[in-house]
Amino acid sequence: MKSLKSYNPLSVSVCFLSVILISMFSLNPIIIMLSFTGGLILYCSTPYCKSKKIHISVFIIIAGCTILNPIFSHNGKTPLLFINNNAVTAEALVYGLFMGIMVAGALYWFAVYSEIMTADKVVYSVGRFFPKSALMLTLALRFIPVYIKKSKEAIAVQKTLGTFKTDSIVYKVKSVMRVFSVMISYMIENTIITSDSMAARGYGGGKRSRYRIFSFDTADCALTAVTAVIGGIYIAVSAFGFLDYSFYPSMKLPGFETAAVAAYSGYFILCLIPTIIEAGDKLKWRLLKSKISPSHTPVAQKQ
After folding, report:
1. Model confidence over 194-247: pLDDT tens digits?
2. Cβ atoms of 66 and 93 closer than 8 Å
3. How many degrees, rounded to 5, is the angle at CA 78 between CA 73 and CA 83?
4. Which of 22, 82, 5, 1 is nearest to 270 (CA)?
5. Model-level pTM?
């Protein structure tokens, strides 16, 4: 078993985006809670997501949506109190709460997804379907750090010449505009050189080949297939209206028919699959470490 970072970017993208899109386009509170729970468990269990500040952001998002939605939305049949003759309803309060949980869950999922999907994986995923867009993305990703580096060099040269040492605001603005003019000239020159270089290498003159560094093995096929099956079940059950839910004008319990329970169970399994993959990789590593016999240092013989 391998970790999520070792999976093909396409299979990982299909799994993560399916979970996120289903929760974002569903008003069912059970689906929203399952997505939030799965994202939280995955974020806390992955070794490369160590930032604790995200939990503060999640709390602020949930609290903000819960408080602000009843202030601006007065829909619902159950008023709790009145502010300036405007009703603060229980439906609006609960709706804001679950919208905040939905956004917070998506934040957890995207936080893990951004750690897994490096720049080369993003370019690989886009390039299979949109090669020209992938090329533009590659050039943009390369151009931004180069542009920042060159601008710092230009500013350092200007400071060496003494153009930034004066206290005059007008003179400082002129110095900044001078650096900006230099960077515009560099950008235009670099663009012309890049286009000439690509034309000299025959870009656009025939069928373009690609070097693939990511393989699509059995595990990737299994992950994609399970995601497709569970996603298909959810779409079918949702199309028949078993998962429909509305907070307005009054709240009600979500559907718990057999089809709805099957959809809930399948979606929760889909949310837990990345965590199961990471847990399996950790367990495999511990088993391999346990099989390694401790080395014995030979005792030096007395001469």
Report:
1. 778 877 777 666 666 665 677 778 888 998 999 999 999 999 988 888 888 888
2. yes
3. 55
4. 22
5. 0.72
